[in-house]
Amino acid sequence: MTSTQTIYIVDVSSYIFRAYYAIRTLSTSSGLPTNAVYGFTQMILKLLKDKDPTHIVLTFDSREPSFRKKEYEAYKANREVPPDDLVPQFEYIRKVVQALNLPVLQMPGFEADDIIATLVRKTIPKDFKIQIVTGDKDLMQLVDKRIHLLDEMKEKEIDEHGVKEKFGVRPDQVLEVLGLMGDTSDNIPGVPGIGPKTASALIQQYGSIDQLYQHLDELKGKRKDDLIKFKDQAYLSKKLASLHEDVPISSSLEDFKRAPFNDEQCRLLFEELEFFNLLKQFGGLEKKLCSDNYLLIAEKASWEKFLQRLQHASCFAFDTETTSLDFTDAKLVGLSFAFTSSEAFYLPLGHRTQEPQLELEEVLTALRPYFENPKIKKYAQNFKYDAHVLKNHEIEIHGLVCDTMIAAYLLDPAASHNLDFLSGKYLQHRMTSYEEVTKHIEHDEFAMVSLQDASAYSCEDADVTLQLAEQFLKVIPEQKLEKVFSEIEIPLTSVLLKMERKGIKVDTAFLLTLQKEFGDRMKKKEEGIYRLAGETFNIQSPKQLGQLLFEKLKLPTIRKTKTGYSTDVDVLTELAKIHDLPKEILDFRGLAKLKSTYVDALLGLAHPHT
């Protein structure tokens, strides 16, 4: 065993709530909410992939109230009940952990933090490094040379120096600061009037709460009075914030060895949850569509045969391959067509691989009558983009019958609508990803992909689009959505296409003048704010603004959030009645909003060529 071995201890609650709020809407076709499960699963898989740990354990909070509730009835009393759409996801998160075969620890009456504290102090050998995966600042009290926190969401590792940056004190003094400042998220009271900065300054000066009270005579005024009045509350808060290091854990390091995933369990679970993009790595989705009849059309003979086939087509699905997602800059690299299931054709037109290919203008001239013939039914995924690209070459597409992206949205608005997802959900087929086909290409340029690889990839797109369209055109009438789809959504696509091509004229000269004017006014307003505040601070930081308004200026606290004081527009509007600074902040925010959201944004959207 070497000193370089590392164990990862995951604070599951921290992961779950961050995942829930990071992905706001996601559900299965049956309506089961899955945003927290999906986000949690992605975060865990990313951790396992990035860190490849030999040892790992996931810690859960107790379902029963912790011992802290007996010490202080109001502990966590301000916590809202979990949102209705989160509650059914807890069970599935446990199923994910079980399927991934990850070690778990949960103890009745103890929070995950206490389990983590016991593990790092009593269970994990001293020659192991420890990474506590969490976003919880309370666990910073455990940090030392071998124990660090890992915030995966921010991709930040917190060591002793990081704790000092956050709290201004050593890790072993974090508990002292928490005792004085309290914790709004856990409803730990602390000493009223003492916020994070003051608490940090006092502990930096005196070292601990005990020492502070031994030197109380050195303090004056309201701060001293508050410390005297709320002494019991300070010590209670310290006790509530203390981590219990004697949780009766019977597990040993051996129990935390990482085991292989249960692929079959993962496959069944992810199919139930409709996580089709995750199924790829667990064998749940296979290449079910036959690609034997995917043909590359790169020479005159095959091109002429293709045209003969096109002449007899009553419908086709098509897809464009380009150099950019921005249609105004996109150059056409190739076109793919599908006339029947499991048969497709790729026409390379702009590859830079030195391989023989078709001549762009000659091909487009020959294809124009077919694209513009409204009697030939067209199927596409995200039709509007492909139509823009061809319109750049003076080709107007008529006869759109099915945009699979729009059809999928009508059938299931909350689900993903990209082609990979739809292929997995409706065809149980794993598509080749763009990353797979470009992984060995510098700058991920599709124009540099070999013609054979490009053909297989693009033909699959056209084939999948055709098969999805055939399914959707049967299901949409069954769901009584035919009128909405055919008479509203499909025609609207052409209207939006014309609007996007027409665009909105942007007077850049005027906007540049306005940008400077707003910038100058913000600068002047900023200087006035600093004069009123008596110090400089980050006006855009709610945390710094909250400390200034409520701790330094002692303005009445109107509302608190999980992370501190609320400084939203309603709070500042109320405070503006009694102090000039909140009014100036509101004016500054208004200018900043106008500048960033409208002036800066419109200048960024103005197309450089037009």
What is the gyration radius calculated from CA atoms?
31 Å
End-to-end separation in angstroms reads 65 Å
Could you name the ranges where pLDDT drops below 50 across 5 or more consecutive residues? none
Strand order of the largest sheet: 3-2-1-4-5-6
Number of helices: 25
Number of strands: 14
Indicate the proportion of strand residues: 5-15%
- Average pLDDT, to the nearest integer? 92
Overview features:
six-stranded mixed sheet, 610 residues, 10% strand, alpha/beta
Write the layout of secondary structure elements.
Elements: E1 6-11, H1 12-22, H2 35-51, E2 55-59, H3 68-71, H4 87-99, E3 104-105, H5 112-123, E4 129-133, E5 147-151, E6 156-158, H6 160-167, H7 174-181, H8 196-206, H9 209-214, H10 221-229, H11 231-241, H12 263-273, H13 276-279, E7 294-296, H14 300-311, E8 315-322, E9 332-340, E10 343-348, H15 360-372, E11 377-380, H16 383-391, E12 400-403, H17 404-411, H18 419-427, H19 434-438, H20 451-478, H21 482-502, H22 508-533, H23 542-552, E13 560-561, E14 564-565, H24 569-575, H25 580-605
Parallel strand pairs: 1-2, 1-4, 2-3, 4-5, 7-10, 8-11, 11-12
Antiparallel strand pairs: 5-6, 8-9, 9-10, 13-14
Helix pairs in contact: 1-2, 2-4, 7-8, 7-11, 16-21, 17-20, 18-20, 22-25, 24-25
Q: Mind explaining what this structure looks like?
A:
The protein is an alpha/beta fold and 610 residues long. The chain contains 25 helices and 14 strands. The strands form 3 sheets. A 6-stranded mixed beta sheet has the order 3-2-1-4-5-6. It is globular. The N and C termini lie far apart (65 Å).
